Amino acid sequence: MLKLTPLLLIIAYMAAMWFFSLWRLKRELNQKSTPLTHPRLVPMLERLGHAMELPPVKAHVYEIEPVNGLAAPDGRIFLTRGFLRKLDSDEVTPEELASVIAHELGHVAHGHTRRRMIDFAGQNAIRLTLGGILGRFLPGIGMWIASMIANAIAARLSRQDEFEADEFASALMVKAGMGTAPQISLFRKLERLTGSGGSQPPAWFLSHPPAAKRIAAIEANAKRWNDS
User: What transmembrane ranges does the database entry give (predicted)?
Assistant: First the structure.
């Protein structure tokens, strides 16, 4: 047991840092957000809520410029001000932003934030244990290799979460009468909207699947549902 004490202490420290980061994010969101009342999006919130047999979906505007959507740990949904500017300039449609909100609802429905907390602890245990073992045989680079392996595992789990949230969003968009076309068209615009072109890390380190793979998965799901 004594041999495991340093590892357990490090994991406890990492968990404390994780909770601190969640607290800090919640505070920032509270300070930099307002309810989403954009007149072109209110009908979308109503349609999504109606499709789930619930009141209109509540969403918020996160007052930052990068184009993004966010599901907070407490279940709140956010679109960034940058995304709304793209709507106002007609670079995206209300239906496309509805698909973003539906995607973030998918993260909430699947409990991805809670699951990532468990994954985070497991990845740090892998990093520390494997780093200790490899460090004996590969001094100086053992911990670096262990970190790369843990990061690859984290990225793979994150990509799985994205596919799950995409599938939830597709089903909700179909039920809301908007179909999967807005989801697909937004993914085709995403690289230009976010300015994420250029060189990228290897695929196994990406936290989000490539847009082409996400589109293919959405189309496959829609075909399966139509055929059933």
Answer: 6-23
Identify which of 119, 116, 96, 98 has the alpha carbon closest to the alpha carbon of residue 107: 116
For CA atoms 62, 68, 74, 75, the dihedral sign is: positive
DSSP labels for 132-200?
A: HHHHHHSTTTHHHHHHHHHHHHHHHHHHHHHHHHHHHHHHHHHHTT--SHHHHHHHHHHHHHHT--S--
- Per-residue model confidence (pLDDT) at position 192: 85
Distance CA 103, CA 88 (A): 21
Q: How many other β-carbons are positioned within 10 Å of the β-carbon of residue 8? A: 11
Q: Looking at residue 118, what is its pLDDT?
A: 55
CA dihedral 87, 98, 29, 214 (to 10 degrees): -100
Mean local confidence (pLDDT), 140-166: 73
> What b/e string do you get for 33-42 counting C-beta neighbours within 10 Å, with b at 16 or more?
beebebeebe
Residues 6+ apart with CB under 8 A from 119: 154, 157
Contacts of 214 (CB under 8 A, 6+ apart): 162, 163, 166, 187
Q: Which two tokens stand for residue 222?
A: 């829609």
Q: Helix, strand, or coil here: 54?
A: coil
Tell me the backbone φ, ψ of residue 69, rounded to 5 degrees.
-125, 160
**119, 5 in Cβ contact below 8 A?**
no
Q: pLDDT grade, residue 203 (50/70/90)?
A: very low
